[in-house]
Amino acid sequence: MFLFCKQNGKEVQKNVIANLTFIEKLENVSDSIKVGEIVIKNLFKSQILAHQKTDFDSIMIIEKVYKPHKKLWDNCYGMIFGEENAPKFNTEKGMISWNKTLYPENKIFFNERAKELLKINLDSTIQNNLNRFNELVPYEVKSTISILFTPITGIFFGGCDNDQFCIELNYKEQEIEYTIEKGFPHELNHLAYEPLRENDPDKNTALRQTIDEGFACYFTWIFFSKEISKYEAVENMTENDWNWYLKNEKEIFNKLSPFFEDESGDNPLMRNDKHKLFPNAPKTLNYWLGFRIIESYVNLNGENSWKDIYEMNVQEVLDKSGYENYIIGLK
Question: Dmax over Cα atoms in the chain, in whole Å?
Answer without folding.
Answer: 72
